[in-house]
Amino acid sequence: MLRQFLLMFLLLAAPAHAQWKEASSDHFVIYSEQPEKDIRDFAERLERFHNAMAEVLQQPRKKPSPSNRVTIYVVRDQAAISKLMRGNQTVAGFYVPRAGGSTAFVPRVDSDITKASFSEIILLHEYAHHFLISISDETYPHWLNEGMAEFFGTAKFDKDGSVGVGLPAKHRNLELVYADEVPIEHLIDTSLYFAKKGKFYDSFYGRSWLLFHYLFFNTERKGQLSDYLIKVRSGMDELEAARAAFGDLKKLERELESYYTRRQWNYRQIVADAVKPGPINITPLSMGAAAMMKVRIQSKRGVDDKMAKELLPEAQAIAARYPTDPFVQSALAEAEYDAGNDAAAISAAERALAVNPAELNAHIQKGYAMARLAKTRSDAAAAWSEVRKQFIKVNKIEPDHPIPLIQYYQSYVEQGIAPPKVALDGLFWAHRLAPFDQNVRWSIANEQFSTGQFREALDTLAPLANNPHQSDLSDKAKELMASARDKLAVAEQKSAVTSTGD
Question: I want to staple 47 with a disulfide (CB 3.0 to 4.6 A). Which of 37, 178, 277, 368 is the partner?
Answer without folding.
Answer: 277
